[in-house]
Design goal:
- The chain has helices at about 1-35, 75-85, 85-105, 120, 125-140, 160-170, 190, 200-205, 210-230, 240-250, 265-270; strands at about 40-50, 55-65, 70, 110-115, 145-150, 175-180, 195-200, 230-235, 255, 265.
- By secondary structure, the protein is an alpha/beta fold.
- It has an 8-stranded mixed barrel with strand order 1-2-4-5-6-7-8-9, surrounded by 4 helices.
- α3 (about 85-105) packs parallel to α5.
- It is globular.
- The mean pLDDT is about 90.
- Bound molecules: ligand C2E and calcium ion (3 copies).
- It comes from Chitinimonas prasina.
- This is EAL domain-containing protein.
């Protein structure tokens, strides 16, 4: 038994060692990927059904592996948040998206440019200066830049976050709450924080036509947005039926595979008819 116990201990420590090694390897790989410009920004259309046109895009980061395959952000963003590289990656995404936005604007497409911002980025003391610099350097109209944050951020260090969001507001950028309805914070934050947009989480949209509970949640969010005068975006719209149901509830802006997948800038330009 003693022997088995010792084996078990060495087995576990070997496993942990392995995890630490691969973790370290992944960190190194990520650092290298930043240096080698292996990160790319894809764009997913946000379709405004009221005016039948693409009114904006969401910038979504991709990591192009050596073999050409794409590593999804779900796989590396959590790690990048742990090792701090999200700061550099996030800066790259915001710069790239704003420059691309300006290019589209110059081609006559006044799209809103939405960029995801990690809590780690938002809590950086110089985040506002960074955003200000990106706006100045890219020349993007501040009112066309939208930052998507998750509601968990609002439960964190509320005073610092409140100051940051108010400062962003003064810069003229919009704040969207991503994955709305999936977090743990209270609805009171909708009063306290300067929020412009709610994004209905895709999990609710996915099941709204098959699950009355999800339908009720979507209805409630729609009414909430209307009552508070917030813009509303539905995420994960995959079918015409979902789009029709959302429209019937008064939600006008749709994002999802039905309207277009996240795609490289060149593909997006074709979709916009400006390439
Ligand atoms: P998110 O911000 O909620 O982005 C929406 C995700 O849903 C994207 O996954 C998008 O490709 C996917 N999606 C869009 N339409 C549909 C649909 O109709 N059906 C389904 N099933 N999925 C759809 P993606 O690009 O893999 O990104 C995953 C998450 O990674 C994002 O979720 C966001 O939280 C994070 N992320 C992506 N890019 C960035 C970034 O530049 N910075 C930060 N901090 N996070 C990012
Ligand atoms: Ca988002
Ligand atoms: Ca989302
Ligand atoms: Ca999400």
């Amino acid at each position: 038994a003693k022997q088995a116990g010792r084996n078990r201990i060495s087995f576990f420590s070997a496993e942990i060692e392995e995890a630490i090694r691969t973790r370290h390897t992944l960190d190194q790989k990520m650092r290298q990927a930043i240096e080698l410009d292996r990160f790319e920004v894809f764009y997913q259309p946000k379709y405004d059904t009221a005016i039948d046109t693409i009114a904006g895009v969401e910038a979504l980061v991709r990591w192009r592996d050596e073999d050409g395959s794409l590593i999804s952000p779900a796989q590396f963003i959590p790690l990048a948040e742990d090792n701090g590289l999200i700061i550099q990656i996030g800066r790259f995404v915001m710069r790239t998206a704003c420059l691309q936005g300006v290019k589209w604007h110059s081609q006559g497409k006044l799209l809103r440019i939405a960029v995801n911002v990690s809590p780690i980025q938002l809590m950086q003391p110089n985040f506002i200066e960074f955003v200000r610099a990106v706006i100045a350097e890219s020349g993007i109209s501040n009112h066309l830049l939208e930052l998507e944050i998750t509601e968990s951020v609002l439960a964190h260090d509320t005073n610092t976050i409140l100051e940051t969001l108010n400062a962003l507001k003064r810069e003229g950028v919009s704040i969207a709450i991503d994955d709305f309805g999936t977090g743990y914070s209270s609805l009171a934050y909708l009063k306290r924080f300067p929020i412009d947009v709610l994004k209905i989480d895709q999990s609710f949209v996915r099941d709204m036509l098959v699950d009355q509970l999800d339908m009720s949640i979507v209805e409630a969010i729609t009414m909430l947005a209307k009552g508070l005068g917030l813009r509303l975006v539905a995420e994960g719209v995959e079918t015409l039926e979902q789009a029709e149901a959302l429209k019937a509830l008064g939600c006008k802006i749709m994002q999802g595979y039905y309207y277009g997948r996240p795609q490289p800038a060149e593909e997006m330009s074709k979709l916009l008819g400006v390439s």
